[in-house]
């Protein structure tokens, strides 16, 4: 019964208490006072929050080990507290509560209404069921306030921060697999970052491999590319919809980072077919940087993302056999898979079949 209680009482109310404490300004105040202790009375005075309410919120945060109780209504910070004092980290809580949590609690009812089959339509999944809208999640997000969009960007930054990257020396062998065999022509394209957002992956690639030959191209929707960070002259920015034919033909590589897990199988097939149509046999590669769910021992990050993708995008994190079928259907073949022992995502290298 304790496990049930933790799942249905403790965890949901912990989320609520953390988000409330974020809105109250609890965590920055506590970190600023650290290593000294902070009392409930000090926090109530500093934030203008009712003392009795402050005590209740802090008690649950301590019970859930978000903060450390050292005396009656007296607390110290933990590493979690320090993280929550950073705005772009704390933004994950209001982001989820605003854009996904109601849909998560509607999953069972939605699936029952569909005969317990996985959703395959981006405009008909638990998100639309819970929020009473008909547009896809990303379209809905674009109608929200700048603050909501900013929280989403913060959340994605936090998710990727500190995780192994495919450009690390102990991950994917870029020199052996891409640089070797690259045409000796400054006008040749080394990599097209398809759906590359604001260029963070290209920036990291150049930081760790500054002598990459040829051109780099950042592609995303025109309104996204306009907001790209300042990038070196070797990077060309291009507005492009990856569901449409790929305009850059014969590049050494086409890179998809966390793209396919955002889309149902039908759209993924379209994305890959558009790339296959632009590839040069025996030269071009597609690099899929995404989670591959193992047959056994999947960790909670992988499985939680899988459910969340179903909830808001009618998509999924995929198993290897699912990737193999999707890639083969698009006229491609897998030529290698690289993973990192401390990472969640893998790098799937593909060529024309």
TrEMBL record:
A GO molecular-function descriptor: O-methyltransferase activity
Boundaries of each O-methyltransferase C-terminal domain copy?
191-332
A Pfam family annotated for this chain is Methyltransf_2
**Keyword Transferase belongs to the record:** yes
Q: Which GO terms describe its biological process?
A: methylation
State the signal peptide span.
Answer: none
Arranged from A to Z, the UniProt key words for this protein are: Methyltransferase, S-adenosyl-L-methionine, Transferase
- The active site annotation covers 261
**Record-given protein name:** Putative sterigmatocystin 8-o-methyltransferase protein
